[in-house]
């Protein structure tokens, strides 16, 4: 099992770009196909896939995921959590956590 905590953010972005490329190729799509589907430039897609993208907005990443038909993979990234009794107070769901001052 991979320990993602050992990776820097740029390394994680490179890893995602590399995986994205694999999914794109398995979907039998060119970078141009993804560009046409997502509205993202081919240059941005190329930089992401080759690990030279300094950073990418979450919105851009989501558009790319939709373009290759993998938007449902978000459920694996942040699955919906079951209700927690610890987050219910006076029959209302807690909206934020506050720490008591010493």
Report on the architecture of this protein.
The chain is mainly alpha-helical and 102 residues long. It has five helices and two strands, in the order αααααββ. It has helices at residues 9-26, 31-38, 42-49, 58-67, 74-77, and strands at 88-89, 92-93. The protein has a two-stranded antiparallel ribbon. A hairpin with a 2-residue loop joins strand 1 (88-89) and strand 2. Helix 2 crosses helix 4. The mean pLDDT is 89.
Provide key terms for this protein:
102 residues, mainly alpha, two-stranded antiparallel ribbon, 2 strands, 47% helix
State the gist of this model.
This protein has 102 residues and is mainly alpha-helical. 47% of the residues lie in helices and 4% in strands. The model has no long low-confidence stretch (mean pLDDT 89).
């Amino acid at each position: 099992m991979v320990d993602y905590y050992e990776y820097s953010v740029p390394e994680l972005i490179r890893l995602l770009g590399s995986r994205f490329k694999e999914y794109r190729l398995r979907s039998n799509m060119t970078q141009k196909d993804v560009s046409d589907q997502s509205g993202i430039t081919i240059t941005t897609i190329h930089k992401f896939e080759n690990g030279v993208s300094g950073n990418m907005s979450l919105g851009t990443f989501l558009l790319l995921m939709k373009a290759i038909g993998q938007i449902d993979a978000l459920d694996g990234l942040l699955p919906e959590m079951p209700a927690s009794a610890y987050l219910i107070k006076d029959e209302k769901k807690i909206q934020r956590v506050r720490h008591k001052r010493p």
